Structure formats: C-alpha cells, structure tokens
Amino acid sequence: MIDYFNGNYNDCYLIDFSNTENAKQLKPLTAHEVSEIIKSNDSIYQLHFYDRRIIEVFMNYEDLLEKLEFYTSKISQLEPYDIIEKELAEDMYIDVNRVFTNFLSSMVNFVNDSALKRFKRGSPKHDAFTKITNEAYDKYFSYRFFYTLRNYALHYDFPIGHFKKTTLRQVYTGRLKSVLEINFIRDSFKNGSTFKAPLLSELMRDFNETFPVLNQIENIAKPLQEIINGFISLEKDDFETHAEVIMKYANLTPNKYKVAVGKMLPTGYWDTIILPCHIIDRLNERVLHLDLK
C-alpha cells in the first residue's frame, strides 16, 4: 500500500473539486474512514492493472487478425502469375511473426505472471484459477499449442515459417485469383527443447507437414475467453465489496468523477486521492458483460 499523507490520516476531508480553483469540503473524515477508502482505492487500482492486461491480450489478438487480413488482401491484388517481391516477403514474414509473438507473450503473461500472482499460492482462489487453466490445457489443443509455442517464439525461432502465394480458379467466373497461405511447419517444432511429448507426438500424429495458422488463431478465442471469464468471476466479490466502499463516499456529490480525499498542505494546496469511479464503471461493465450480477 502506498504511504498516503505520510501515514497521517488526521485532518482529512472528502472534497468536491468540480471547480479546480475552489475545491469544496463535503465532510471531515475520520482516520478510520480514510484508511477504509485507501484500502479500497488500492484494491480497485490493482484490479485495474489486471483488467489492462486482459485488454492487452484482446488488442494483440485483434492486431494479429488485422495483420493477417492486411497481407492476405495485399497478396490477393497480385496478378495470378506474379511472384511476391523479396522485400515484401521479408517484411511479411517478420511483421506477422512479430504481432503473433506479441499475442502469445501477452496471453501467457496474463495467465502466469499476472493472474496466478494475484492469488496467494495455496489459497482457494489460486487453486480454482489453476484448475481453470489446467482444464483449458487438457481440453483445447489450441491452448496447449499456443501456451508452449510462446517459449519457442521467445527463445528459439519465429513460430510461423510458411508463407506461400497460390493461385485458385474461381468457381463461377473461372478467373484465377492470388491467395496467400500462412502455415505452421510441423517438423520445425522438433527443433530445440520447447516441444516435448505428448504435445509433440500429438502434432506429429494429427497434423500435416504444414497446417493453417488462422485455424488455430480462431480456435484459441474460446479457451482464452473461458480463462479470462474465470479470473473475473473469482474477483467479482472483492471488486463489488471495494467498489461499494468507494461509491458510498462518491455518491455524496452529484459528480462522482470529481470526488477526492484531501488534506490541506502548509502551502495552501490540497494533497488528494481521487476516487477511482471511472475505473469502477469500466470494471463493472466487464462483470455485467459476463452476466455475473
């Protein structure tokens, strides 16, 4: 917890700073009330951090889909017998792998370095979230593949190795059309020490020498959403408890976005903690979206 007001919670007020030049004192606060507000304020900001991590995952996912669409569209504009220029081919290889690795990293970072660290090891919430991720790993190939592929991408090689322009004849018009194929190369995952049995055996058994990247990207959406929904579900009660504390004070003024805990400094300026009502609104939307209310 941050040491607000140098740890001295006496002589604090709830203030309305709608008029920044003339803040209005709404009510004096006891040291206990200030402590209560600060505890809930810190908790809301911690949840905000994890919400940002979730948004980062979704942003990277959308960036990846957009990048695939961009190059697919670019190649489709080529004449059927044109070849991809070397500069474009190189840019495409690096660019698509770059955004794909960003997505993999943010996904695994949320699961391992963010969500699991949020819950104390051995606690019911930690065990519950671990169960959710383990079930996703066992149930969905796309999740266990991408989860492992992240380390491959960071420590060994680019994860996507096959970019190829092919020509298809359109059924109704008979015209030839340029199409971009973006594939994983199955046997490349034999290299290094990232992929081990049984996942490596599953890859060798169930997939062709090359297999489409887009299929797996589309398939990861469901397990990823289940994991994120599970995390939010586990945090729902704590969020609502601390949000209720903040809103109890924020609702004392018509403009909840302009309420703070303040202490007058010897300089005549206010030292303030702005109540995080905008963050509460955003987190509340996510809870409502899951129909958890």
Report on this structure.
- This protein is α+β, with helices and mostly antiparallel strands and 293 residues long.
- The chain has 2 domains: 4-42 and 236-289, no CATH class; 50-231, no CATH class.
- It is 57% helix and 15% strand.
- The strands form 2 sheets. A 4-stranded antiparallel β-sheet has the order 2-1-6-7. The protein has a 3-stranded antiparallel β-sheet with strand order 3-4-5.
- The protein is elongated and about 75 Å long.
- The relative contact order is 0.16.
Write the layout of secondary structure elements.
Blueprint: E1 12-16, E2 24-29, H1 31-76, H2 86-118, H3 124-139, H4 141-155, E3 162-169, E4 176-185, H5 199-206, E5 210-212, H6 213-219, H7 221-250, E6 259-264, E7 270-274, H8 277-289
Primary descriptors:
4-stranded antiparallel beta sheet, single chain, alpha+beta, 2 domains
What gyration radius follows from the Cα positions, in whole Å? Answer: 26 Å
Number of strands: 7
| Sequence of strands across the biggest β-sheet | 2-1-6-7
Mean pLDDT: 91
State the oligomer. single chain
The global form is elongated
Distance between the termini: 29 Å
Helix content: 55-70%
Q: Order of SSEs, N→C?
A: EEHHHHEEHEHHEEH
How many separate structural domains?
A: 2
Query: Low-confidence runs (pLDDT<50, min 5 residues)?
Result: none
Describe the biggest sheet? 4 strands, antiparallel
Strand content: 5-15%
In terms of structural class, how would the helical and strand content be classed?
Answer: alpha+beta
